[in-house]
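User: Please predict the structure of the protein below. I'd like the answer in structure-token form so I can feed it into my own downstream comparison script.

Assistant: Understood. Taking the following sequence of 221 residues as input:
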Amino acid sequence: MGNDELILLSYWPSMFAARVRIALEEKGLNYEYREEDLPNNKSPLLLEMNPVYKKIPVLIHNGKPICESNIIVQYIDEVWNDKAPLLPSDPYEKAQARFWADYIDKIRDIGWKITYHKNKVEVEESKNELLEMLKALEGALGDKPYFGGENFGYVDISLIGYYMIFYTYETCANFSIEAECPKLIAWVKRCLERKTVSKSLGDPKIVYEIAVEWKKRLGLE
């Protein structure tokens, strides 16, 4: 499939877009990266390629769009199945990987409450809920290098983009993820040693600055 045209519509602070960038890098695929001007200046191409949700990421493969980050990662793994597999081949293990990826997606709404709610009680409750989720993930990781065992894969890709916003959560709710979930942060550091990951993630402190700016725009400061 050497003549494939791949275009990624993305936004660099997005943990969801990061998943797709990492998957493409893990497969060693050449693609054209197009940064979207979000949230208020979406390109005509984005609106055409994702008319239902009108959001990134979108992978355009030979003119055909694939939307939703986990679905895109699965698509990449299935189409380029001759390169470093991302999902397990065993049906049960594959189902478990999809379960945890679905669980990870629930972090976003909790994190939003931590970042953008003004009520301190709700922020504290959301922080505790987030830590409960992260500890569950830490339990699933166990003593393995990666969620799938020795090999970096689908669940790792689903979660590692959140590293970009961990600093925002910690700053907004005044806590330390590393203090609460040391094995999880050790896993983060292992993932960041991979070039495919480190080159695909943005600076957490700049992501925090963006969150602060959005809070000002929303009148939450």
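That's the full token string. Strands lie at 6-10, 32-35, 58-61, 64-67.
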